[in-house]
């Protein structure tokens, strides 16, 4: 993690491997859409795969793995925290709105 | 990076000394750090757009699921493939730039722009198809089996339009970088920084694609 980014170029086999992994995960996602799962299970699986894909893109394509760990700590935890806060506030409320809807 | 800087880093290896001043604590150029900070703010912009979409979908009684597996999902899968491949060619461009191979860098950048353009053209085709069906940012077609949900069009066009705008701006940005690097005005770092932006736009699509398309498959 602490290795110097200068002069470092990601190796081609590694990059190709990441690209194949991203394609494979996209393929799995499309297959999940094809077989029609329950919405909650589907959403959980899709978001899980998407987070893994985002992590791969940031680590390898965006080079974050080869930067100093302090850069990662500056960028990622703060935004994860913000997104969690938004989720905590809005999702129970979205559910509440649905319950409050007048029938018919 | 200057020799003095490398020396300073070697002399003060402890983390706390990196923050004492006189050295770059992140060991990156200011352009790269600036792009990362922009990406973080842009990530929040997309986060709230995606969350707004999820919020109105969750609080609506019925939400249209208008994308049949064939052709709409296959179509958007091809779009995803184009964008993922453009990220691969972008990595190749950055690697070539660091080798100071100007010709190959420009070629890889042009390949990236071509993949991005393919994405925009396919996406615009899909938009035109939906608009032709009668979908508007303020309402859904009367022929759809779901009750009129104006927020479907609003969030769909808002979210995917914002992303399409980012891809379009990215293509222009890469064009400027390719021209500047080809004429040796720009440094490899400039190519790398443009790559960060491009990969980020790809990353955002990795959330829009499942949430907007794969969660809205129309089953017969």
Question: What would you note in describing this structure?
Answer:
The complex is a heterodimer of chains A (104) and B (220). Chain A has helices at residues 12-35, 39-61, 69-100. By secondary structure, chain A is an all-alpha fold. In chain A, helix 1 packs antiparallel against helix 2 (39-61). Chain B has one domain: Four Helix Bundle (Hemerythrin (Met), subunit A) (Up-down Bundle). Chain B is 74% helix and 2% strand. In chain B, strands 1-2 form a two-stranded parallel ribbon. The mean pLDDT of chain B is 92. The chains are: A mainly alpha (104), B mainly alpha (220). Chains A and B meet through helix 1, helix 2 and helix 3 of A and helix 3, helix 4 and helix 7 of B.
Q: What labels describe this entry?
A:
heterodimer; A: 104 residues; mainly alpha; 2 domains; 3 helices; B: 220 residues; Four Helix Bundle (Hemerythrin (Met), subunit A); two-stranded parallel ribbon; 7 helices; 2 strands; elongated
